[in-house]
Design brief:
The complex is a heterodimer of chains A (454) and B (115). By secondary structure, chain A is mostly helical. Chain A has four domains: 130 residues, Orthogonal Bundle (Rna Polymerase Sigma Factor, Chain: A); 108 residues, no CATH class; 99 residues, no CATH class; 88 residues, Serine Threonine Protein Phosphatase 5, Tetratricopeptide repeat (Alpha Horseshoe), CATH 1.25.40. Chain A is built from 18 helices and no strands. Chain B is α+β, with helices and mostly antiparallel strands and 115 residues long. In chain B, a hairpin with a 2-residue loop joins strand 3 and strand 4. Chain B has three helices and six strands. At the A-B interface, loops of A face helix 3 of B.
Chain lengths: 454, 115
C-alpha cells in the first residue's frame, strides 16, 4: 500500500478527488470490476474514517457507530458479490451503517443510557431518528465528518497514548490487536486503554466537533503530533529486529494526506506531510542488507525516492510561505535540504543551522537542540558541535536519550579522541533497544577501540 | 448542559501565614471568577472553601485518624460545582479559576437522575 487513500471521495464532490495522488486510482469512484472481497478490503482501508465519522453523528455513540460500520462492511461483502461493487463504495457503506444506527435507536431507545456519547454543541446530542419511512436517500449529501472524528480522538483531555490508540482504532480502522502489536503492548492492555478513552469521551462530554478558529492552532498541533508520533514509532521501531515498521509509516502518511485534503490551507499540515514524505523517501537506504543502520552520510542517495522528494519539497515551499513558519514546516525544510543535497558534505549546512535556529524559537525541544549541535559541527567543525552537546549534557533534559551520547561519540571519533568516543558509544549502547542501532553502535565502538586499545 | 466539579488543589503552606491583604485579594479573585463564569455562558451551582488539612479527620473502615485521607503536597482546598455545555466549555471556565498555589482538577459529575 504505497498509494494514498484519498480516504473518502464522498458523493459531495470531496476535494480529495482533485488531489493529484488520487487520480488514476482504480478504486476511487468508477465501478470496480472484479473481486468484491478486494473491493471491501480496499474500502475498509480507504473509507473507514469517512464512514465511521458520518455514522457517529447519527449513532451519537462511538461504540454503536463502530458496530454499525463493522456490520455494514460485512453486509457489503455479500451485497457487492451479488449486485456488483457500487460506484461510490463510501456512500453505500455510510448509508448502510447509518441505517443500522437509526434502526438500533428505534429498537432500544429506552434501553440505551440516556447519556449520549458524542455531543454536538448547538444541536440535540443525538440526531433524532427520522420518522419511519423517511430514510436518508442513497445519494443524499453525506457530510464529511472526518475532521470531527480526528479532533475528538486527539482531544488534549486524553493522554497522548490514548490519542494515538483512538486515532488508529477509529480513524484508521485498525483492530485493537493490531494496535497492541504496533506498540508492543499486550492486547488486554491496549483494549483497556481504548475503552478508558472512549469512556472519558462519554462521561466528560468531549464534544464531537472541529475546534473553533481561536483554539485551532493548539488543537491542530496535537493532531499533527499524534500523526508524527505514529510515523516515528514506525520509522524507528522502538524495539525488535526491524528498524522500520512499514504499516505504521504508511498509516501515518495516509493520515497526513487525509488532513491535507481536509485542511488544504493549514500550512503546518502541509509541513507535516512534507516532513513525512521527505523522511520516508530515504527509507530504503536507512539500513544495509544485513540490517545495519546507515547514517545519512553513508546512504546511497541514488536510491532515494525522487518523486517523494519532489512532492515533499513542493509542499515545503507552500508551508514556509505566508508568515512565521511552524515547527513541522521548518523540520520539513531541513529534511528537504538534506534530501536535495548531492552528498552529506555538500549539504547546505549553514542554511540548515539557520533553520534550526528558527525552529528552536517556535519549538523548545532538547532534541532540536541536539540536532542543531550536529548541524553546527558540520557548519563550523566538530569542536563547535561538542560545545553545544556539553551544554545539553549540563542541562540534563536529554538524560537517557540515546542519540545524545551517539552524537557526541561521533564528533569525538572525528576528532580522533578515541578513548572518549568509546566511552560515549558504550553509553549509547546501553540506551538502545533497537537491534539495528545496537549493531551500528557496536561496529563504531570496535572501530575506535580496535587500533587504539582502550 | 452538564455538571462538572472544579476541585482546587493548592499547597497549603502558601496560605499558612497569609496576610489579611492576601486573603482579601484571594476573595476578590474568586469574586471575579464567579462573574466570569456567567460571562462565559456557564453557571456556578455551588462551591466552598475548606479549612486546611490540619483540621481534617479521616475514617477508613472503623479507624479514625487525624489528618487528610492522602498526604500530598497540594491538597484539596475548595471546590466549585458548575454547569457547562461540554468538556471544552468546562475547561475554558476552569482555566479562570484562581489557584495560584497549585491548580485545579475538572471532574464530570455523574448523572444519576432517573437512571
Amino acid at each position: 500500500m504505497s498509494g494514498f487513500p484519498p480516504a473518502g471521495d464522498p458523493p459531495a464532490g470531496d476535494p480529495a478527488a482533485a488531489d493529484p495522488a488520487a487520480t488514476g486510482d482504480p478504486a476511487t469512484g468508477d465501478p470496480v470490476a472484479g473481486d468484491p472481497a478486494a473491493a471491501v478490503a480496499d474500502a475498509h482501508r480507504r473509507e473507514w474514517a469517512f464512514v465511521l465519522a458520518a455514522t457517529a453523528r447519527v449513532a451519537g455513540d462511538i461504540d454503536m457507530a463502530e458496530e454499525c460500520v463493522q456490520d455494514a462492511y460485512v453486509a457489503a461483502l455479500d451485497a457487492w458479490s451479488r449486485q456488483g461493487v457500487p460506484r461510490n463504495p463510501a456512500a453505500w457503506l455510510t448509508t448502510a451503517a447509518r441505517r443500522r444506527a437509526i434502526d438500533a435507536h428505534r429498537r432500544d431507545r429506552t434501553l440505551r443510557s440516556k447519556l449520549p456519547l458524542l455531543i454536538e454543541p448547538g444541536s440535540p446530542p443525538v440526531a433524532a431518528p427520522p420518522p419511519a419511512g423517511e430514510e436518508a436517500p442513497e445519494d443524499d449529501v453525506i457530510p464529511d465528518d472526518r475532521l470531527r472524528l480526528v479532533f475528538t480522538c486527539c482531544h488534549p483531555a486524553l493522554a497522548r497514548e490514548a490519542q494515538v490508540a483512538l486515532t488508529l482504532r477509529l480513524v484508521c480502522g485498525l483492530t485493537t490487536a493490531e494496535i497492541a502489536q504496533a506498540f508492543l503492548v499486550s492486547e488486554p492492555t491496549m483494549a483497556a486503554r481504548v475503552t478508558r478513552a472512549k469512556k472519558k469521551i462519554s462521561a466528560a462530554r468531549i464534544a464531537y466537533r472541529v475546534p473553533e478558529e481561536a483554539e485551532l492552532p493548539d488543537r491542530l498541533d496535537a493532531v499533527l503530533t499524534v500523526v508524527h508520533l505514529l510515523y516515528t514509532t514506525g520509522h524507528t521501531a522502538p524495539a525488535g529486529e526491524n528498524l522500520v515498521r512499514g504499516d505504521l509509516v504508511e498509516r501515518a502518511i495516509a493520515l497526513a494526506r487525509m488532513l491535507r485534503t481536509l485542511m488544504p490551507d493549514e500550512r503546518e499540515v502541509r509541513g507535516l506531510l512534507a516532513l513525512l514524505l521527505l523522511t520516508d523517501a530515504r527509507r530504503a537506504t536507512r539500513a544495509d542488507s544485513g540490517g545495519r543502520l546507515l547514517l545519512l552520510e553513508e546512504q546511497d542517495r541514488s536510491r532515494w525516492d525522487r518523486p517523494a522528494i519532489g512532492e515533499g519539497a513542493a509542499l515545503v515551499t507552500g508551508a514556509l510561505r505566508g508568515g512565521r513558519p511552524g515547527r513541522f514546516a521548518l523540520q520539513a525544510a531541513i529534511a528537504a535540504l538534506h534530501a536535495e543535497a548531492p552528498s552529506y558534505s555538500d549539504t547546505d549546512w549553514p542554511q540548515i543551522l539557520l533553520l534550526y535556529d528558527a525552529l528552536s524559537l517556535v519549538w523548545t525541544s532538547p532534541v532540536v537542540a541536539l540536532n542543531r549541535a550536529v548541524a553546527l559541527a558540520m557548519a563550523e567543525g566538530p569542536e563547535a558541535g561538542l560545545a553545544g552537546i556539553a551544554d545539553l549534557e549540563r542541562d540534563g533534559h536529554l538524560a537517557g536519550y540515546r542519540y545524545l551520547p551517539a552524537a557526541k561519540a561521533d564528533l569525538l571519533r572525528r576528532l580522533g579522541r578515541h578513548a572518549e568516543a568509546a566511552q560515549a558509544y558504550r553509553e549509547a549502547l546501553e540506551l538502545t533497544g533497537n537491534e539495528a542501532e545496537h549493531s551500528f553502535l557496536s561496529g563504531r565502538l570496535s572501530e575506535v577501540t580496535g587500533p587504539v586499545p582502550d | 448542559m452538564a455538571q462538572y466539579a472544579i476541585l482546587i488543589y493548592e499547597d497549603e503552606s502558601s496560605y499558612a501565614d497569609a496576610s489579611p491583604e492576601v486573603w482579601q485579594q484571594m476573595m476578590e479573585a474568586h469574586g471575579r471568577f464567579s462573574q466570569q463564569v456567567g460571562e462565559k455562558g456557564g453557571k456556578i451551582l455551588g462551591g466552598e472553601a475548606l479549612q486546611p488539612t490540619s483540621t481534617a479527620t479521616s475514617i477508613r473502615g472503623d479507624v479514625v485518624t487525624d489528618g487528610p485521607f492522602a498526604e500530598t503536597k497540594e491538597a484539596l482546598g475548595g471546590f466549585y460545582l458548575i454547569e457547562a455545555r461540554d468538556l471544552d466549555h468546562a475547561l475554558d471556565i476552569a482555566k479562570l479559576c484562581p489557584a495560584p498555589g497549585g491548580g485545579v482538577e475538572v471532574r464530570p459529575v455523574m448523572d444519576v437522575s432517573g437512571g
